[in-house]
Amino acid sequence: MPSLRTFLCAGAPIPGPLVEKARSELGAKIVSAWGMTELGAVTLTRLDDDDERAITTDGRPLPGVDVRVVDAYDAALPAGSVGRLLVRSCSGFGGYLHRPHLNTTDAQGWFDTGDLAYLDARGYIRISGRSKDVIIRGGENIPVVEIEALLYRHPAIRAAALVAYPDERLGERAGAVVVTKQGEYVDLPAIATFLKSHKVAMQYIPEQLLVCDSLPVTPSGKVQKFKLRDLLREGA
C-alpha cells in the first residue's frame, strides 16, 4: 500500500507487537491514540515521535487535557507506578442523561476513567487495562497488558487475551484465551516455556488455556473480556 503514509489507531490499547508488524509491513507511520466516549480523544503520539513511543505508549495528553495517575486514596503516584487514571478535559461530557448516580466526575472536574495506567518519565501514558479486568492471584496483581503483549509475540498466536477465573485457594488465577495462526498449534506447556524465556515470573504465567476460532469483540473492535471470563469459568 505505497500511498498509505499514516495509520491512526485508537479505541483500545494496541499490542506493541501489532504496531511493530504494521510498521514493517505497511511502511506507514503508526500513530497511537486513546480516548473515551465521555471524553473524546485524550492522548496521542506525534508524527515526529520515534516508533518506540507508539509501540510502548498510548501517547501524551492533547492540549486542553490533564491526566493524573492515583492510588486508592487519590494520591498522585510517581512515574512508572500503575494506578487509577483520572482525566480532566475541555472535551469532557456533562454527565449521563437521567443517570446522575453513574457520574464519576468530582467537584474539581476529574473524571475516573475506570482504567489503570502509568505515566513514564516523558509524560506519555500506557493503559494497563480496565480496573474490572485486574487479575489478583494470591494477593498479587498480574500485569495483564504486558503478558498479552508477549503472547502476541508467540509465533503460533494471532490474537490473545488474559482473563481471570475463580480459584478457591488463591481467589483468582489467570487464563489465556488465544486464536492461533492458520495451521499452527499451541498448548499450555508451550506458552509457559515461551513466557519463561522472556523472564516472566512463575506466578504471572497463565494456568489455563482456551483456544478459540476468534475473540468476541464489540462493534468497535474491543475484546469482550466478560464473555471470555464466562467461558473460562465453565471450564475451570
Q: What's the SSE blueprint?
A:
Blueprint: E1 6-9, H1 16-26, E2 29-36, E3 40-44, H2 51-56, E4 60-61, E5 65-70, E6 83-89, E7 111-119, E8 125-130, E9 135-137, E10 140-142, H3 144-153, E11 157-167, E12 171-180, H4 188-197, E13 208-211, H5 225-235
Parallel strand pairs: 1-2, 12-13
Antiparallel strand pairs: 2-3, 3-4, 5-6, 6-7, 7-8, 9-10, 11-12
Short description:
The protein contains 5 helices and 13 strands. By secondary structure, the chain is α+β, with helices and mostly antiparallel strands.
Structure explained in plain terms:
This protein is of the alpha+beta class and 236 residues long. The chain is 20% helix and 33% strand. Strands 1-2-3-4 form a 4-stranded mixed sheet. Strands 5-6-7-8 form a 4-stranded antiparallel sheet. The longest helix has 11 residues, at 16-26.
